[in-house]
Amino acid sequence: MSQPSLVTRDLTVRFGGHVAVDHVSCAFTPGELTAIVGPNGAGKTTYFNLISGQIRASEGRVELMGQDITRLAPSARTEAGLGRAFQLTNLFPRLTVLENVRLVVQARERRGFNLWTMAMGHRDLIAEAEAVLERVRLTAQRDQTVSALSHGDQRKLEVAAMIALKPRVFMFDEPTAGMSVEEAPVILDLIAGIKADPAATVLLVEHKMDVIRSLADRIIVLHNGALVADGPPAEVMASAVVQEAYLGKELTDV
Amino acid sequence: MMRILSGDSPKSALLAVLLVAILLSLAFAPFLFPGSRSLETAARICIFIVLVASYDLLLGYGGIVSFAHTMFFGMGAYGLAIATDRIGTSYGALILGALAGTAVAGVVALLTALLSLRVRAIFFAMITLAIASAVAVLVSQLSGFTGGEDGMNIRIPRELTPAFRLFDAEVLGQRINGKVVNYYLVFAGSLILFLTMLRIVNSPFGRVLLAIRENAFRAEAIGYRVVYYRALATCLSAMIAALAGALFAIWLRYVGPATTLGMEIMMDILLIVVIGGMGTMYGAVVGTTIFVLAQNYLKSLMGGLSEATAGLPLIPDLLNPDRWLLWLGVLFILSVYFFPTGIVGRLRGTR
Ligand SMILES: Nc1ncnc2c1ncn2[C@@H]1O[C@H](COP(=O)(O)OP(=O)(O)OP(=O)(O)O)[C@@H](O)[C@H]1O
Ligand SMILES: [Mg+2]
């Protein structure tokens, strides 16, 4: 059993009196894909925001590769090896598809403070960005601006950015949300490809049962901000607390 | 060629022609447009191109609104004036003064940025407004040091003044006096500063600025520390503005609150950036040229037209030179309405 790459300890955030994430303690290990499920408003996205730093924790800690990152800015957490894809598409809408990926590679290589060379002269960054586009099959859209892409292609581009970032921990927040039935499998194949790397830790927020069944090694369930179940998929799905909190209502086979 | 332009081609034939025309006109201004008034206009265009472009670096690339840009411009000018006042007239004093003013501008910009950009970009705009007003008051109060409202006359080396003759022979029918030498100092300085900025905006750093302007949240999430990038952009922009201010001081041989620190100049800069096209650099060139020409010649043009139409009803009155500001306003509204992406955006065919 390898060491956990990401650990949260009593991670908590309150908005006014409302506890959106309530003392969640959980460890995630490389080579494992954990599905995070729970009804709407359960706190899944907020839990992600606490881990990647968009929201500051009221209480508790986040550790990445043994290092306490609770107080770091989001960019510093990304540098430390965290990769986050967002539930609502979040890209650079007026830049091209290639530039969106190239910027990620440039960030990872820490060349952003280079003032005196031409960006287009860094051929290696461009070549790598192109290779990633090839992998997600967006090569044909290379020079289009993102705002001109279909919703499905924009979601693909978000996954492409994650691949380009090469993080230790991948966090996907409903990556197939709003996608057509034909488009979704492409994304899922890409995530399966990421999961195939034994060094990658993957967290996946997902509502679709068939997706969870085919990809997840483990499920954790959030309900009203608290962690209410954690275990292998079959076990969690069968448990009474989950049936009551969640499965009976929303987690249905499509 | 593309190396000099840092790979940033004009991407429009008409724009390329315009830029070349402006460059050649400025390069040969003393010979093409003899007379002290036109040389005055040409020098002002050179300096304002740099000033406006440095503001574009901040606003158009960094997405940061600042009202302190003229303050940094003034720091360069005052730095030079104070240095020559204290040390005496020498090239060393000019350089030292320019560098000192630039250093102060850089430090003030960095501190302002680090303290306020952390909070929110709009907060930065308000802080800059406050600091710029405070500095303007300070400059007029500390009259022993800055000359107060009257400003300071600057004694520059004789080789840069009209009294100096470079040689006796005429070149293309022109005496090469110190004023022409001074003009070429301004021209060369401006050209170097502009090309430097073109280089910066096309560097990996420039790309990050564009990314931050587009979506700061995303830029932070993929690993760019947004505050630091914005702070560096603010700092660079302020330092280049200060250098432009130093050139302006050498050219005018005078510095005063109205010529460098005034809010009117700040408004002009904002107008020109918008008219020229934000985030393009070349917009500063085209916009400044049109704006300064309009500012200088619209009045006389209108005077002429007003007389020519003297027999007609209403029209001569509308064309009265006193109404020039009104027409400039109309021009501005029309240009923003018809070219929301500025002249350069329009020429490049982007919406
Ligand atoms: N910044 C915020 N300020 C106040 N309340 C917030 C904030 N962010 C989230 N919340 C609240 O926290 C709760 C959890 O929201 P969250 O978005 O994490 O749910 P979720 O599990 O991701 O839901 P969904 O399945 O709909 O995406 C909600 O009640 C939400 O209104
Ligand atoms: Mg959510």
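Chain B has one domain: 13-347.
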